[in-house]
Amino acid sequence: MLKDILIQQIKRAGPIDLYTYMTLCQTHPIYGYYTSKKSTDILGNTGDFVTAPEVSPLFGEMIALWVVERWEAFGKPDVLQLVELGPGQGVLMQDILYTLERLTLFTAKCRVNFVEINPSFQRLQKEKNQTLAEVVHHDCIRCLKGIKEPAIIIANEFFDALPVRQYVEQEGMWYQVGVGLSEGNDLRLFYLPQTMVPKSLEYQPDGDIILEYIGNHISHYNGAALIIDYGYWGGRGDSLQAVYQHKKVGVLDHPGQADLSVHVNFQNMACYFEAMRLQYNFRTQRQFLIDLGIQLRLELICRNTEAKKAKEFQTGVMRLIDPGEMGQLFKVLEVWKR
Ligand code: SAH
What we know:
Elements: H1 2-13, E1 16-17, H2 18-27, H3 33-36, H4 39-42, H5 52-55, H6 57-73, E2 79-85, H7 91-102, E3 109-115, H8 119-129, E4 134-138, E5 151-156, E6 165-170, E7 173-181, E8 187-193, E9 202-203, H9 205-221, E10 223-232, E11 241-244, E12 247-249, E13 259-261, E14 264-265, H10 266-275, E15 278-284, H11 285-291, H12 294-303, H13 307-321, H14 326-329, E16 330-337
Parallel strand pairs: 2-3, 2-5, 3-4, 5-10, 10-14
Antiparallel strand pairs: 1-7, 6-7, 6-9, 7-8, 10-16, 11-12, 11-13, 15-16
Helix pairs in contact: 6-7, 12-13
């Protein structure tokens, strides 16, 4: 078990920082949450959590409209590169491609690039999308360097899974949160002395590498990005949470078994893109979907569908836009070239 490996490692070499702990929990080659679990144990009705594309196909439909808008702004290239980071069961891209196929005004050929770490997800993503477009898998963002055309980059509930560094201030001193051992040799949180004053209470180093790729790609080859996740404008700090078998648990309780995630700091992301002189727009998921016309689309579907099916569509869309459900907590950051 990952917990035993961590305890042995800390015994041998001393405490590790939270970033290293979370990296091992998420992506340890044998025991990592995203590297070892079956897709159906992570996502969907049988898994740990349900994401927006799995709640309603109208989520992907609306994003397809956004894709068309951006594609028109690039000057309607014949080939459109679509990149999705952490595509899960591949449902979002399937809904996007399915919608694009039906929009006669959209005439480009799509090439789909998935960045995915989990082999069981990769299989599903391929199965769901290969009849709709050419699909290529990449192990990491660096492998996308070969794409030299305008690209649409989409990430839904991807950044929240990336490992985080956390800092705390106590009596004028700064510490980095780490993981060590208790007297009984169990994992426990530790404060590691920190010489520099951090810029924010939470920081995702891998996220920065990805933002850099996105920013560089859009600056050099044109394109646009759509980042959707739960999070805030500005950070809250201490947002790391763990969910195991649908219950909130301590972040050290089930390493590699529990779903670990953080609230994304959208202000940091926006500042990053602004410094690269890119244009961005930030809205709640509710506003984003309403602006794209999800309510009108729902009304049209309901007019032409039998009552039971119509109710299902209504429930799904309400879940996506209701402020008490996903509408307010989830935010959307769009990025494109000025
Ligand atoms: N976007 C999907 C799934 C979100 S779950 C949806 O909306 O349904 C997070 C996804 O990111 C999973 O597919 C997971 O396997 C993938 N993932 C997590 N960490 C990753 C990493 N470091 N590199 C590539 N993919 C990763």
